[in-house]
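Entry for the shared binder. Reason: the reviewer on the internal report wants the predicted structure included alongside the sequence.
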Amino acid sequence: MEGAVRVQILSQMGISEVPSQYIQPPKNRPESVTENIADLSCKHVPAIDLCSEKESVLPAIREACREWGAFHVFNHGVPTKLLDGLRRACLSFFNDFQMEDKLKYACNPNFAASEGYGSRLLVSSENETVLDWRDYFDHHTLPLSCRNPSAWPHFPPEYRELMANYSDEMRVLAQRLLALMSESLGLKASCIEDAVGEFYQNITASYYPPCPQPDLTLGLQSHSDIGVITLLIQDDVGGLQVLKDGEWLLVDPLPNAILVLVADQTEIITNGKYKTCVHRAITNASKARLSIATFHDPAKTVRISPVSDLVSQSSPPLYSSVLYRDYLSSWYSNAPEGKRNLDKLLLDTSK
């Protein structure tokens, strides 16, 4: 059982000040958390209709991946009923059941990214790591050999079936998006997926309780995702921010849309042509927030490097190759702040 106190318990206690281990250093804190969160909203993250003609979809994806590293997709083929059902089931797990029942699914505190119900992302002492104002449930969903629904909540009763169906839908959508991203660079459709190999997918449902001091905390600290592509759905409570041109912008949740986040391995594979998205989650004092992120990673034994078709004398490789296992280990060792690990792989192209 994970030893950390669940953030939801702290929030329900009605505390007026957050414990010290949740207070971010001044440089990491939100500049100001306005009472009217809509004032901070970003209405410019691209939204792409996947039912449009490919001639318009490919340029839109190319621009979004170059300029933002993020974009919404709609008409994506994932049933709205499934999106709504999974959001309800995850919210029900956090809100409708006794803590003693939820703790039966607690994460193993001795391993990073262990499956289950947790509050601490990194394996380190609380004195060394500022904690996120967040509880979560992490599910290992692909490959099927890693999928064990008995490790997922049995309440509400539809939870496990919804999660398994959602995993399958996200795999199909991720493959479709990577094919479009490849084609948008003039590559064969399978290029990025071929470089990745079999997906290792995990799905994390994050619950951000109301916070008495949102100006001092983060629901999720600044980071870029370490894998290939992340697919995110939110509820209608804003909180996700993306870093664009040095400014933190709040991403408006779009009904029934899925937010696509370019992750570190895709930046390497595309030789920097497509940018990983640095993002974070802020908190608020009045409303809980739910998000569900689906991560798609290579196997730990896969070596990632820029694809040969994007490397030439005039466009030399920008990144050294890396074994994904080593990249993963470095990320967990250094804490997920900014693009520290990705920048370590940059090559000197000035020679």
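Summary line for the report: The radius of gyration is 20 Å.
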